[in-house]
Amino acid sequence: MFAKLNYSAPLDAKWVANTLECRSAGDVFLLLKASDFVQHDLERTMEPCLVLKQWMDVDVRHEFRCFVAGDTLVAASQRDARQCFPYLCDADTRAKLWRRLRAFCHDAVIPNFASQGRAYCADVFVQSDGAIILIDVGPVPEHSLVVPVHTLGSHDVPLFYIASEAQVDRAADRALAMHRVPLEIVTGDLASMDEAFLHMQAQQR
User: Fold this and answer.
1) What's the CATH fold of domain 60-161?
2) Could you give the CA distance from residue 104 to residue 110 in angstroms, rounded to a whole number?
3) What's the pLDDT tens digit per position in 49-62?
4) Cβ atoms 120, 68 nearer than 8 A
């Protein structure tokens, strides 16, 4: 299964077990406890809720984020902004994907979510047989490495955004790296880490 809160997933805790798949309650607690993202939600969210989903291996090359505003699909982009997927550089491929994503959102997503006029994102996965699976729904992020969110719904802007080789931003990996291991390792302050460990050992004696 895949475990998350109603706002954030413990993506930053993957380093603990090298996977986000949970096979037991212990796996769930381990990931949630190790995640800074989840901790942030617990401190700031009024009503956090644990969400458990069936595990599914997702090829990130075929995972997309759909931006919905005013009960219509206004933009779409590749979900993983850290990589460039050459097949998406073909304009005909993007046009076909756009039509399929638009049909899916208008048939299966928009009628089932009372957005009350608020914009939101729907993350979807396009399977090899062409079927589309809804993965998650959430608020539009304040920032995106691929989509200029402040232009959503404007005229004369692209409908389908992809990351080119020049645009791939490795900063996303570096930002997550700060959460994947103890801060002392990221900053190189191993001396203070050793000191803290020795102090803890002394207290346990």
Assistant:
1) D-amino Acid Aminotransferase; Chain A, domain 1 (3.30.470)
2) 9
3) 899 989 988 899 99
4) yes
